[in-house]
Design goal:
Distance between the termini: 39 Å
Largest sheet: 6 strands, mixed
Oligomer: single chain
Structural class: mainly beta
Number of strands: 10
Shape: globular
Length: 124
């Protein structure tokens, strides 16, 4: 199981863009699928996107499809989430989680172990 440090969050106006990252430790990233999850206070954590280890295929929640792009750099043990055309409802704390090879558990996390997350705020 990987541990993650998320970074890159911030405040942006609606329609803006942000790219967040999570860097893994504990094992080689190349053997794991990685998902991004969002949590808003008072709500359940939501699966946003996942990228498989095998073919690097990305999966997306319907709310972000066409606006967010997930990618990975296994040499840097890092997964990215490019977020474009951001909306206020995209605001929340973003976390990474991993599972072996494929995104079979997505949009649920396989393990209930989380890093500190990175906060994204979309507001005018």
């Amino acid at each position: 199981q990987l541990q993650f440090v998320e970074s890159g969050g911030g405040s942006v106006q609606p329609g803006g863009s942000l790219k967040i990252s999570c860097t893994a430790s504990g094992s080689a990233l190349r053997d794991y699928a990685v998902g991004w999850f969002r949590q808003v206070p008072g709500q359940e954590r939501e699966g946003i996107s996942c990228i498989a280890a095998t073919d690097h295929k990305g999966y997306y929640a319907s709310s972000v499809k066409g606006r967010f792009t997930i990618s990975r750099d296994d040499a840097k043990n890092t997964v990215y989430l490019q977020m474009d055309n951001l909306k206020p409802e995209d605001s929340g704390a973003y976390y990474c989680n991993s599972e072996k090879l494929t995104c079979g558990y997505f949009p649920k996390p396989q393990f209930n172990v989380w890093g500190q997350g990175t906060q994204v705020t979309v507001s005018s």
